[in-house]
Amino acid sequence: MKTTTRLARRSWLLLAVLLAIVALAGCDGGQATEPAPTELAQAPTNVPPTDTAVPPSSTPLPPTDTPVPTDTPVPPTDTPLPPTDTPVPPTETPMPPTDTPVPSDTPEPTATAVEAASPTAAATNTPLPPPKPKVGKIVFTSNRASWDDIFIMNDDGSEPKRLTNLGQCYDAHFTPDGKSIIFSHLTGELFDVWKMNADGNGQVNLTNTTDNIEDYPVVSPDGSRIAYLFGWPGGYEIYTMNLDGSDRKPITSRSIDLMPAWSPDSKKLAFISLRSGGFNVWMVNRDGSGLTQVTKFGPERISQSPVFSPDGKQIAFTTIAAGTAWEIWAVNLDGSNPHKILGTVGNDPNNSTYIAAWKQGKFLIGGYQGGWDPYFVSESGGEPVRVPASEKDDKPSDWWLP
Fold this sequence. Notes:
By secondary structure, the chain is an alpha+beta fold. The chain has helices spanning about 1-30, 35-45, 50-60, 60-65, 65-70, 75-80, 80-85, 90, 95-100, 100-105, 105-125, and strands spanning about 135-140, 150-155, 160, 170-175, 180-185, 190-195, 205, 215-220, 225-230, 235-240, 250, 255-260, 270-275, 280-285, 290-295, 300-310, 315-320, 325-330, 340, 350-360, 360-370, 370-380, 385, 395-400. A hairpin with a 2-residue loop joins strand 9 and strand 10.
């Protein structure tokens, strides 16, 4: 009995202590800071509840009052509140990442780049200035700097440039690509065929003759062969060779054949010959076959400087009869319809003319009126237009177009 009473007193004493602690906690709750509840939450855990649980079975009344300790969980419920408040900042801190998608708007530069590209394309289309007219080149012999050297200039007469410094250079003709020029050069009493770049560099002798005359070279439109004159005592023949001077072949034989000119397809050659007793236009295949007389003038008329029309259907040439002036004529390949196109430059019988080229509906001619100058004239006739040149003799020999 004493033991029971002692245990009961001890239990009541413990309860009193607990109530006092709770009371103190209640009093301090209005003044203390938030850490106080965390200490109260630990106090009940230190008190062994297993010891107090035995007495309540014999004296139930105190346990009914013990629900007061059940109020003690209130502090723990209060203590979680700070954590519930503290999560709020984390929820706000994610907000910047949600705002950071603004950088995800950086694709806009790609869209901007596309828009920028389309105006650029428009800009490339808008600056379409009218194309510059193509400027051709005229190669000619002139004594403006020395005794007959090769010069080149634009076909409007601008930018003349001297190409040779050899003296006595003649009959210059372009290769089809305009990159090289073939010409003849007189050394002593012998002519040779030479080749150089269109800027005058790379001059080389292709024939190196020792006892013959080889001159008046013209390049085939396909760029494969050079036709030229091979002079022997008593006459001239027409030969062809490669552009490097190799593989020389005779096309005509044992006559006086002069001034070869290629057809546009490079299959035929027109030339002037004395075969019929007068200077007439003749034609031959590039292999020497198919020799044909085109004009049939008598010895009273002399013809020279034949050129094929751009379509290859006619041959133009200059001709003169006794007591008249030089004129430009044309004839079909079969010899039909010979007709006059143009009289001599200035319509002066003392003047002279020859044809250098026939391209794009125009003739490039050399005209003499006290001196030689290049002229352009329509293939249908009309007044020749002088190419601005020097006061010296400028004798055109070819016209190249890009």
